[in-house]
Design a protein that fits this description.
With 176 residues, the protein is mostly helical. It has one domain. 77% of the residues lie in helices and 0% in strands. The chain contains eight helices and no strands. α2 packs antiparallel against α3 and α3 packs parallel to α5. The longest helix is centred in the middle third of the chain and has 26 residues. Its EC number is 3.4.23.-. Keywords: Hydrolase, Membrane, Transmembrane, Transmembrane helix. Belongs to the peptidase A24 family. One of its GO terms (molecular function) is aspartic-type endopeptidase activity. One of its GO terms (cellular component) is plasma membrane.
């Protein structure tokens, strides 16, 4: 898939390598979350550190945004977790979701996190409603695949568009 993007001139240089690494991690995490309802620390935390390392090497001007994004992603979902636990007396997110959101923040910067959270939540809610309508089942759904899908789409699209600000396409559109 990335080879076609490269041949069409949509991805270039290190973008093709970083996109392939990022999407590979997200696919593995999504698969594991669907099968086991778990996002392993060794995958989520290595994704976070690889993202920060790549920022330090290729785009050091965005390293601070990545560090802030990692902290904001984790703390934002941590706050949502405890608010939900206090209001509804049950857990709504797992700790793996905190770490995945932190990793997404490390790769894309803090500016993209609201978009990732909102679009992933909308996707999860639609999936939950459709599952209930067709199968009449309730219960937990893995949230990691929704975060991974939205994060992957945003990251690859910003690499394809190759804007001067390679952090978040949607953030640049809003500023215009």
């Amino acid at each position: 898939m990335f080879n076609q993007f490269y041949q069409l001139g949509l991805l270039h240089g290190y973008s093709i390598i970083t996109s392939a690494i990022f999407v590979s991690y997200l696919l593995a995490l999504s698969y594991i979350d669907v099968i086991r309802f778990q996002l392993p620390d060794w995958l989520t935390l290595s994704l976070l550190w690889v993202g920060l390392l790549l920022h330090a090497i290729f785009t050091p001007q965005y390293l601070v945004s990545g560090v802030i994004g990692a902290a904001a992603g984790y703390l934002g979902f941590w706050a949502i977790y405890w608010l939900g636990k206090w209001l509804f007396k049950r857990e709504g997110l797992g700790y793996g979701d905190f770490k995945l959101m932190a990793a997404l923040g490390a790769w894309m910067g803090w500016e993209c996190l609201p978009f990732v959270a909102v679009y992933a939540s909308i996707g999860g809610a639609i999936f939950y409603v459709l599952r209930f309508c067709f199968y009449r089942t309730r219960g937990e759904i893995p949230f990691g695949p929704f975060l991974a899908t939205v994060g992957g789409v945003i990251y690859v699209s910003q690499q394809i568009l190759s804007l001067a600000d390679p952090r978040c396409v949607f953030c640049v559109i809003i500023k215009i």
